[in-house]
Amino acid sequence: MKILYKTYFFEVSMAVNNIDVRQQNKINVYKMVLSQDKIPRQKIAEKLQLSLPTVAFNLKQLIESGLAVEDGQLFSTGGRKASTVSCVPNARIAIGIDITQNHIGFAAVNLKGDVIDSIRLSQKFSYTADYENSVLDLFNNYTATLKIPENTIIGVGISLPGIVNPEGTKLMESHRLGIYEPAAFEFAEKINHPTLFFNDATAAGMAEISKSPEIQHAVFLSLSNSIGGAIIINRKSVDGDHAHSAEFGHICSIPGGKQCYCGKAGHFDSYCSALALSELADGSLETFFKKLELKDTVCTKAFADYIENLSIMICNLHIIFDTTVILGGYVGSYLGPFIDQIKQKVLELDTFR
Ligand SMILES: [Zn+2]
Q1: How many angstroms does the Cα of residue 239 sit away from the middle of ligand 1?
Q2: 173 alpha carbon to ligand 1 midpoint, in Å?
Q3: Mean of the pLDDT values across residues 63-77?
Q4: Sheet of 227-233, strands arranged across
Q5: 319 alpha carbon – ligand 1 mean position (Å)
Q6: Of 74, 127, 149, 163, which residue is least crowded by CB atoms under 10 Å?
Q7: pLDDT band for position 16 (50/70/90)?
Q8: Residue 5 confidence (pLDDT)
Q9: For the chain, which domains are there?
């Protein structure tokens, strides 16, 4: 019995391994096609060290499922015309829903990771059936405007400003949304596609990384109406034992300082969220930066303080992680003209410059 058991186990594990290898080959061939504009079959075989029949088998499946297309014989190599293949980026679409305190955003992302459509609407959050029904209606209206077949949508990612459980099925807590008990939203269950919840800053950080294949490790600092972040090691988000990692907004910058929305004092969020600037310009970040350009005294002083606090945080993150720090969020999109100034400040503070 013992030997039979072992033999059986061996056969099963071999079978599983063969399936794994075949599945992995298919994934690798698809990734190769996805990463290039057009690629000859021969080149796929060479790069992946697979036989031409294996490549042909996998390409046939990808073409039949609409994920790839044969381009024909477009160019010559060594006198022979090479048959090239390319991916069909819009063959499958993922939908993103971004829920914030006062807005809801929808985006459609194709297989290349390109945002092909997006919309942002005013919609005040409340943990009520009415709100959930309106999100579902807005989702259905949005997907209808895309005019794509239902089976093109492969899944829906829902980002929230709070802590999400590791399975991505519940919002565990969100000070911003006033959620202090685990919340499973019914609207997500009514969407006819696989849905997953994500922390907003983690989702944004991973989106940045997905477009930068050269980056292996990074720290993402999201400077929106609340501050969040993501720690990315080997291109994977490190969420911590309680999914609380990278909540940089709640690092104490100034002991006993301004009150943070979490209830404690002196947190980085109170000094460097987008609200710290927009509250000086009728709630508009765009207006703040226009006033700054016009050398408004109050805005100039506030921005100097902002850069000071931000530079200290960047320096601290750099000392802890010794890797690239990516600035994102609402404020991040305005920081381009000031990046040299910020770098200079960080260099002055950094022990290891
Ligand atoms: Zn706080």
Answers
A1: 18
A2: 14
A3: 76
A4: 236-237, 227-233, 218-223, 324-328
A5: 22
A6: 149
A7: very low
A8: 41
A9: 25-82 (1.10.10.10), 92-204 (3.30.420.40), 214-349 (3.30.420.40)
CA 162 to ligand 1 centroid distance, Å: 12
- The whole-angstrom separation of Cα 317 and Cα 67 is 41
CA of 260 to the centre of ligand 1 (A): 5
How far is ligand 1, taken at its centre, from the CA of residue 352, in Å?
29
Whether residue 48 contacts residue 31, with contact meaning beta carbons closer than 8 Å, is answered with: no
Residue indicated by tokens 């490549």: 55
Q: How many Å apart are CA 80 and CA 291, to the nearest integer?
A: 63
Q: For residue 15, what pLDDT is reported? A: 44
Tokens of 124: 């005040």
Residues with CB under 5 A from ligand 1 (ion): 250, 260, 262, 267
CA of 237 relative to ligand 1 center, distance in Å:
22
343 vs 325: CA distance, rounded Å: 11
Nearest to 131 by CA among 162, 103, 173: 103
Ligand 1 centroid – CA 270 distance (Å)? 8
pLDDT tens across 122-180, in order? 999 999 999 999 999 999 999 999 999 989 999 999 999 999 998 999 999 998 899 99
Helix, strand and coil in the chain, % to nearest 5? 45, 25, 30
For residues 253 and 256, give the distance between their C-alpha atoms in angstroms, rounded to a whole number: 9
CA of 243 to the centre of ligand 1 (A): 16
Give me the residues paired with residue 232 across strands: 218, 237
Tell me if 118 sits within 8 A of 106, measured CB to CB.
Answer: yes
The one-letter code for the residue type at 338 is F
